[in-house]
Known about the structure:
By secondary structure, the protein is mainly alpha-helical. It is built from 24 helices and seven strands. It folds into four domains: 2-192, Tetratricopeptide repeat domain (Serine Threonine Protein Phosphatase 5, Tetratricopeptide repeat, Alpha Horseshoe), CATH 1.25.40; 193-285, no CATH class; 291-385, Winged helix-like DNA-binding domain superfamily/Winged helix DNA-binding domain (Arc Repressor Mutant, subunit A), CATH 1.10.10.10; 388-537, Tetratricopeptide repeat domain (Serine Threonine Protein Phosphatase 5, Tetratricopeptide repeat, Alpha Horseshoe).
Amino acid sequence: MAASILFNHWNWIRDGQGAEALVARTEPVLDSGHVSPLMQLWWRTHLSFWHFLNGRYERSAAVADEAHAIAGRYGLEAYLFEIDHARAEALISANELEAAQALVDAIEQRLAPTRRMDAAYFHFLRSTLRQRQARHADALRDAERALVLARETGLPVLQLPTFVARQAQARAGCGDYEAALADLDAASAAAATPAERQHLGRQRELMAAERSLARGDTAAAAMQLGAVLAGYRARHTLAFVRNRPDAAARLAAFALAQGIEPDFVRLLIERNRLQPPPGAGPAWPYRLRLHALGGFTIVRDGQPLRFTGKAQQRPLDLLKLLVAIGGREVDVQALTDALWPEAEGDAAKTSFDSTLFRLRKLLDVEDALPLAGGKLSLEPTRVWTDVAWLQARLELASEALSAATAGHAAPARQAAIALLQAWTGPLLGDESPAWVLRPRDALHARVVGMLARLGETLERDGDPAAAVALYRRALEIDNLAETLHRALMRVLAAAGDHAEALAAYRRCRELLARVLGAPPSAETEALHERVLAAALAGPRA
């Protein structure tokens, strides 16, 4: 009777009918003394899998441990494969990859040659692990081997589509989207139930969006991803590309950048424990955001932090300096030399250690400031800074310039827009400690120089209107940059607008005289003479 109750409860749970309440009702049955050890083992193995499907990976692992203990207590070692498989799946999904690898290795050692179907499940499991480890070619080999064994050993037809879908995900990890999509089509055609076909169909839609994103077709990717996420939200589906978190993170970052289902996407990020991919923008839900352009603000979990006590100033100076000089593997000696120039030896180290301890307490974000090998960093999965974002836009602009071809100005134009959006003011605004002057000037010069180069590309590729707009925006950043004034004069004159070119010269001359007390350079004067002569000559017949 107790076994029948457990069996019926499991069917209801599997089908999602009041699952939470049914699991709670099961515990008294298990504790009644009328359930055999084998049935207890069976129930907990399946319950572990149910917790896994619902994203409760720690609970899944704990229930698998309970099943393991029952197997050991009653001599049911023959069932260890299913138990350990469930626990390994939970460890992989919780991203505890070292523990998962150790368990997978142990499972491999215990594989019995006579149980070839276990080998099929093993290769399926190891494919999942290797994909998490970014060993994509190995993951594909395991997925292919799993599918071959599944077919050779007569795996139940209901489970074959899952093996084909695993191969599809492994192929996508290797960048072979066409073969991966074909696999998902085959899996869907072989699916035994409408629910499974719908599930595989959603996988295909997400993979199609991923393919569009990889091709650079952001419009198609946005349309495809928007449709999928709207459906996920309506069904409250929270499992999101579960075994490929790198792909899930890229899709989530893109959705946030495009404003697609932002609240729901943030929930997916939280539930699936996604880490920000390289280049994730400010919309990603970082625990800590540091804004150092145009001033300095700290935002933790969406709330600005405010500090008023003098005792907090030194820790904040350490944080500002760390942000200003890159935030990644900054040598402690460079930090102590800047903040405690008069201290020596142990005194400098003591000051640094004490200040870092206080800063970590102020921020109260675990592992936000790792220190290793004498180098301090801002942990990139927990901390976002506008300085790092600006640096990334500069790198993308440089790549756009390298890839620019004659007559194709779009990449340069887009890079310029992104760079101007990322620039919100000089490093640390009007704060003026001695240590900020050099990094502030260096960053400012790099931005202005890049904008000038992008403008030259727009000129060369026949987009003078965009070049004029860019130079004017760049002059708002640095109105004393003669190179920008000359560039603006040059492009206006080339377009035949001599009056505006001469007005640009006058503004340059007045600014230099008022701010620097100096006349324009000889190069600027020579350009002015050429523009003036062209204006006086008038249009040619």
